[in-house]
Give the backbone structure.
Amino acid sequence: MPWNIDGTFFSQYRSQLAWLFSLSLAAIAGSCSHAPLDMQKHLQEQLITAKPGAVIEVPEGKFHFDRTLSLTVDKVTLRGKGMDKTVLSFAGQKEGAQGLLVKANDFTIEDIGIEDSAGDALTVQGGTNIIIRRVRAEWTRGADAGNGPYAIYPVECKNLLVEDSVARGAADAGIYVGQSENVVIRRNRSEYNVDGYEIENSENVDAYENIATHNTGGMGVFNLPNLPRQGGKHVRVFKNQILDNNTPNFAPVSLGPIHDLPTGTGIYVMAIKNVEVFGNKIQNNNTVNVFLIHYDTGVGDSLQETASSPITQQIFKPGDTRYYPFLQQVYVHDNDISGGGKSADSRITVMKQMADALGGSLPDILYDGRVDPAWPKKGANAGQICIGNNGAASFLNFDAAGGMKRPVRDLKNYACTLPALPAVSIPSVAAQISATPNGAIAR
Amino acid sequence: MAQGRRFEHLLPGILLLVMACLATVFVGCDSGLHRGVHLFLEEPFPKKLSAWHLFAGAANEGHLTPNTGVLPYDLNTPLFSDYADKYRFVWMPAGSSAEYKDDAPFEFPIGTIFVKSFAFPVAGRLGEERLIETRLLVRTKSAWVPLPYIWNAGRTEATLQLVPDPVRIRYTDAAGRGHDFTYQIPNTNECHECHDNNKVLQPIGPKARNLNKDFSYRDGVANQLARWVTVGYLRGAPEPAAAPRAAKWSESASESLSARALAYLDNNCAHCHQPGGTAGYTGVDFRLGHFDAARFGVCKHPNSAGNMGERRYDLVPGNPDDSILVYRLESTMPKVMMPQIGRDVVHAEGVALIREWVTSLHGSSCGNVAPR
């Protein structure tokens, strides 16, 4: 049974009067803060009846919702009084998987906390010109396999800014950006999630000045098969702090590849081209600080599997013919990398065995060395993986394709450079970007 | 907006009166008046269902007598809605008709009204039903507009509510099975969840394959497509025998297991799980006639599922217990269950059908990867 903010029980009998009652409520809400207010109903009504251009202000307080809140109107701003002051709590959610579900363009959300949703905390789906600012999305019980997969989950968006936000407790990724283009992710803090940040099947992404700490892994940049949008590329990851991501992996097995993310991963880059990783502080991630891999190394199963078609009963490989699993043109430079690889995740057999073979620890930068035999450019570095100016960071190409028979420790074959990738420009938020100072974020 | 609401607060009675007057004199519905139905094509839409004149007299314990031109219909395989009895009607302005399409909802004319009422049995009163809600889907000049009307306790009137309250449902069905749950009436945004494709709200049910069946009209049994043509509601349709037809999910004597299961998935899942649908981004597509193994989830990792127990794949051929598809249908937990909205109890018979179908598929695993 739902309870309103004052704990007043309401039942189906109220539906008889609900229409008149809701009109009164709306009027009261505008003028009188003492009246009992069913915020669940009131806010949902505001979101439904909003006209383009509306700014919906949510007052200070903790408000309980037992079903998904949703918005489909374009050009709406939803604004609270601060990520710790205005809290939308979905604890005990009964209906809908998401906390707040937005399917609209020109949407801005700022200064709001979203807690304990059944599934993803904030989903923005298929929107253009989206700003997520100073939002806290969190599962308050901390790391738990039963938490929702994603805290901040924009998917299939264009012109997206995620800034100064905080994500905690997600059973997959704290801040995820998927199947999107023209994206800036900056000055966020993501901690105690399985993955701090995930940039998946997306194009033209800048992720900078973010903090990832106490996650299982800090940040992933990758492409996956079987998603409508393929061919993510052009990702810059810079000036981030990827520190102490050693929280034991708590992703449920059903989350697939992320369940197998080694505890203690700093940054991993998988099955993508044109990625530049520079100026980051990547330290004390216990399995490996930087992991550069082909899809088979990271996920390693489903492309090889066979199954039978339920219709034709013919055996097929469920792989995605549009998918390209190789890593190429990745430039890792000028990073401050240290203190990682000291205690590889024993759950991931191959990592543990490799660490044991290397005397107990793994190098700072680990590359699987898988290259496409079809590439015209042969030689020692066909994938154009360029690594330079990372201080004393150690390196290993562990020759995954060759059964680890010809590992390469020497960086000289990788001492190339690649042209700097251009900065992402988001036309719709350019003015706001230049006007926003580089402030410290809430902790 | 705030000022308008304050005004309503001050003068709700007067406003109601004004709205009622507006409803009765609303223009642009000459053809509607001709058939007795009142058509409203723009806001404000009437607060009372009766203003539409869709039904003759008051609702009598669930028995809605349609007004002239309000044509009842049903579907070969409907969406499951908590075992609610659903009563569907369609109305179109005089002289207008829908354009037939083979594989999608028909192209309906401006002024089309779909009417779907949801009713549950009344505890202790055999054969009696309690009307809960009547949803209208109205084709206005610019878009389809969803309008949920919620019935009062006396079943004499239903009022428009954007965010309806949940309703407790308790009864024992004809098979002696007890039902006791909270029925969540979707709010108007949740209408979009299922009805939107590429952000455009569309009818879901009235497609050729769902309508291509016999219906017992007052004047006898007829095929629905043929009847729609006869009454002038449909043009361009082939003979029913030449039109696509979805299986009836429950007719195991006359329909194949595969045809029933695929029809069930089409009508219970594909409104979201298709390109452009709410769950289009998952890459899963359950539309009938668009089968592709990977897009049906065969040996596919879910991409944003959450905790599905120890299951790794959407559909494991031959193994329903390892299939997330089955797990989700069997659940009522908000994060796990599918569909995500519009279902509060498990559809035991539907689950049994999908279990039987998954079991019948070749194989018993996806590759050689053992669950951890």
